[in-house]
Amino acid sequence: MQLDPYETEQLLQNTPNLVILDVREAWKYDTLPRLKAAHHLYVGDVASQIDTLVPDKDTPILLYCTIGVKSHHALRTLQTLGYTQVHDGGGIDTWFGLLDPWLA
User: Fold this and answer.
1) What are the tens digits of pLDDT across the range 21-77?
2) Domain tally for the chain?
3) Is residue 102 part of a domain?
4) Quick one: how far is CA 2 from the chain centroid?
5) Can you give the residue range of the structural domain that contains 42?
6) Residue 46 — left, alpha, or beta (φ > 0 → left; ψ -120 to 50 → alpha)?
7) What phi, psi does 78 have (nearest 5°)?
8) CA-wise closest residue to 67 among 89, 86, 46
């Protein structure tokens, strides 16, 4: 289930050690708004590279993309790999200014 923008904001404010993953294409990460603390990990690379970026499977992770499709796929991949605290922030396009202070 995707978080709504208010739930995403609460997660950002209240979750220590939260790892934020932007799973969009590299050109979107590089040129469009993104969360300031986000790491880029394209959805197609999640399965092969997540253990390097987040070795502890109990680390809280927030995923997002543009409209929510890629973040949902990444969520399923991480759950299959045994990650226990994965949150789907959905698409950045749905945040409508609410999370602007968090954006780079």
Assistant:
1) 999 999 999 998 888 899 999 999 999 999 999 999 999 999 999 999 999 999 999
2) 1
3) no
4) 11
5) 5-97
6) alpha
7) -65, -40
8) 89
